[in-house]
Amino acid sequence: MIAPSHAEELEDHPESPRHLAEANAAMKAMVLAAQHPEDVVLAADTIVVLHGEVFGKPASIEAARNMLARLSGQTHEVITAVCILCSALPLRIQFEEITRVRFRPLSDAVIKDYLQTIDPLDKAGAYAAQDDAGRLIEHIEGCLSNVIGLPMDRTKAILTENFPGLFQSAGSDL
Q1: Number of domains forming the structure of the chain
Q2: pLDDT tens digits, one per residue of 161-173
Q3: Distance, first Cα to last Cα, the chain
Q4: What is the pTM of this model?
Q5: I want to staple 151 with a disulfide (CB 3.0 to 4.6 A). Which of 16, 32, 97, 131 is the partner?
């Protein structure tokens, strides 16, 4: 089952951007675990970080345009924190994946065209790697699925290790 947690996300953390993503993933997981105490709950939070500044989800198209302009020609980090909870066991597993992404230099026209083809308001950094088609991203160092929003290989390995029966009964798709 997929369900939104409706947890109020933090926008800043005093320690680091990585800690911000971890705190948000944990809050989302705890809200859902309280509603579904017998289930294994997986929650994630993805942020984009450029020179220590966190780029979350833009509040407007203009904010999205500004984010993309600032990311233009730069290498940034995408941090996804994952929190897996099961209140019935009790079990809590938390980890994060960091991927480095280099953007091509972007003209105003490319940014405008891109923003007309996707909804940037629900995407950290105002972009979607899965919809990029080479328009923005020049190079990815690390896990592509992390940039999309969930580091699939690592998540599946951790779930398989801790819940081996989960994939036997549900099939092999994660």
Answers
A1: 1
A2: 988 876 555 455 5
A3: 12
A4: 0.87
A5: 97
